[in-house]
């Protein structure tokens, strides 16, 4: 039995519904044919490489992700990172499957979008294919294990790797320990206990001492202390403006821009802020400037309504409630807040 890490953030709108149906997926739809599976399982590396040269004209490093994925074995354990959590899955098939084997007539992507089978690939009703080529049949043993409570430093660091998958046999003890502590509901970090006890105090103080304008400045200060090279509040009369962002944070070294709506509210908030920041990001996405762009909504409220949550899932928008933001402030260091807001 081997231990693996495999992330499914690619085409999340379909990969997560397939995961819920018991299928772990990967892209590479250009290579979705039986011979690719058969020859890879025989460890025919030259054949594998030659198919990339023949079809793509090069041999990208990412091809290793497919090589590993096709060679997962029945009984292998796979850690699947999600937003702030992770699943523990077991491979239960006898070998990899072409993506068509994961299709069912009731399969739908996020947004209740119907998925069809077209030329052995999963596709939208308009005929556009999803770039998913292969699947593994899995059983989810444990769902949504919180990272901050049950993943030790080794497992946490490994879940931050950029590649799609990796063998993690060297830290399988960390995986086993996280499962044991999750079963016992026993957080393994003093850090987690301190955060849980402190976050509500921080949030209550923010609500009592600040106002909407000062909360925006607090969010701005958070991004500055988190390493952003530039943080600014866009002009309200910005030219050709669509949607709205209260704070823009630029991380130059990462070629990353985060557009954020900051909502100083209580209780449950609506989808309005989520729609606003989505429209703003979508407008900025049309500019080919080499930056990756993310959309966040940070609020002092406790929850987001169902419409906002669904909209966020469908468009990969990060929703951060008051307690979660308080934890982020704590993790970033209270000393960073020693400025006028």
Automatic annotation (TrEMBL):
Q: Which InterPro entries match?
A: Restrct_endonuc-II-like (IPR011335), Restrct_endonuc_IV_Mrr (IPR007560), tRNA_endonuc-like_dom_sf (IPR011856)
Query: Where does the record place the Restriction endonuclease type IV Mrr domain?
Result: 209-329
Q: What is the lineage of its organism?
A: Bacteria, Pseudomonadati, Bacteroidota, Flavobacteriia, Flavobacteriales
Q: What is this protein called?
A: Restriction endonuclease type IV Mrr domain-containing protein
Q: Which Pfam family, an example, fits this chain?
A: Mrr_cat
Domain of life of the organism encoding this protein? Bacteria
Species the sequence originates in: Flavobacterium limi
């Amino acid at each position: 039995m081997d231990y693996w890490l495999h992330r499914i953030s690619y085409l999340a709108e379909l990969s997560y519904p397939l995961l819920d149906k018991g299928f772990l997926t990967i892209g590479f739809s250009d290579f979705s044919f039986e011979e690719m599976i058969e020859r890879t399982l025989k460890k025919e590396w030259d054949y594998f490489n030659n198919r990339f040269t023949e079809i793509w004209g090069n041999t990208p490093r990412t091809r290793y992700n497919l090589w590993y994925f096709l060679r997962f074995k029945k009984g292998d354990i796979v850690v699947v990172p999600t937003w702030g959590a992770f699943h523990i899955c077991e491979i239960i098939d006898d070998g990899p499957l072409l993506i068509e084997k994961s299709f069912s007539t009731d399969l739908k992507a996020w947004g209740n979008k119907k998925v069809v089978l077209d030329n052995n690939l999963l596709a939208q009703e308009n005929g556009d294919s999803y770039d998913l080529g292969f699947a593994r049949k899995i059983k989810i043993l444990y769902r949504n294990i919180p990272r901050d409570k049950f993943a030790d430093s080794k497992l946490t660091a490994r879940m931050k790797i950029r590649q799609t998958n990796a063998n993690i046999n060297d830290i399988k003890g960390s995986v086993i320990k996280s499962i044991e502590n999750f079963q016992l509901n026993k957080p393994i970090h003093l850090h987690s206990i301190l955060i849980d006890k402190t976050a509500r105090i921080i949030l209550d103080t923010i609500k009592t001492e600040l106002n909407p304008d000062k909360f925006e400045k607090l969010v701005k200060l958070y991004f500055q202390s988190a390493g952003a090279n530039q943080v600014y509040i866009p002009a309200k009369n910005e030219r050709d403006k669509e949607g709205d962002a209260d704070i823009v944070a630029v991380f130059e070294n990462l070629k990353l821009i985060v557009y954020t709506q900051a909502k100083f509210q209580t209780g449950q908030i609506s989808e309005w802020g989520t729609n606003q920041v989505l429209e703003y990001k979508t407008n900025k996405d049309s500019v080919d400037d080499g930056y990756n762009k993310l959309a966040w909504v940070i609020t002092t409220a406790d929850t987001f309504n169902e419409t906002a949550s669904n909209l966020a899932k469908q468009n990969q928008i990060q929703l951060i409630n008051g307690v979660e933001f308080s934890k982020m402030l704590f993790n970033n260091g209270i000393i960073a807040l020693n400025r006028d807001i």
